Amino acid sequence: MTAGAPAGSILQHASVVEIDGRGVLIRGPSGAGKTALAIELLFRCRASEIASALVADDQAFLSADDDTGALLATVPGTIAGLIELRGFGAAPVAASRCKAETRLALCVTLVPAEDSERVADPDRRARLHTVELPELVLPCRQPVCGAYAVLGWLGLSRRLL
Questions:
Q1: CATH code for position 99
Q2: Is position 89 within any domain?
Q3: How far is CA 48 from the centre of its chain?
């Protein structure tokens, strides 16, 4: 187990944000746009006065809550409050815009555009750790499109438009 990791957790290469009280895990290969989608989600939520926070960028510990069956994402202490701006490096995020942990409600998987879905499959699930989560499969490097899809899935489109 990695130092500082919650008991029974696994380390996932992903970014995590919390939107309106629900955690969103964003995964995909390096360079797919995980951080760009996280930033776009945070920006659009802030502009629309939807509660949101950065939990983790690039890495998150995932652990199952034995009592509730929920999947929790926790930021590794070494990267808490930081987000990587490609071409610049790690940048601090205001403490009021960060959380250390969230309960995950959705998994977003970034894939090449030709492998993405035009309309979300409501039955698609991703198995992470020991928990299944609803999964959106979205095109890589299209953060605006991805942000609208995530916010729509969360039922927040009326607050954006």
A1: 3.40.50.300
A2: yes
A3: 19
Provide the number of structural domains found in the chain: 1
Whats the size of the chain, residue-wise?
Answer: 161
Closest CA to 131 of 76, 75, 68, 74: 68
| Residue 4 domain flag | no
The dihedral built from the CA positions of residue 36, 79, 82 and 63, taken in this order, carries a sign that is positive
DSSP code string of 7-32: TT-EEEEEEEEEETTEEEEEE-STTS
Q: Give the burial string for 48-76 (b: 16+ CB within 10 Å, else e).
A: eebebbbbbbbbbbbbbeeeeebbbbbbb
pLDDT at 142: 98
* Helix 143-153 × helix 34-47 angle, to 10°: 60
| Residue that has been written with the tokens 């879905």 in this structure | 117
- Residue-wise pLDDT tens digits, 39-86: 999 999 999 999 999 999 999 999 999 899 999 999 999 999 999 999
Nearest-angstrom CA–CA distance, 17 and 21: 10
Q: What is the pLDDT of residues 78-133, one digit of tens each?
A: 999 999 999 999 999 999 999 999 999 999 999 999 999 999 999 999 999 889 99
Q: Where are the beta strands (DSSP E) in 44-149?
A: 52-56, 59-64, 71-74, 82-85, 89-92, 101-111, 125-128, 131-139
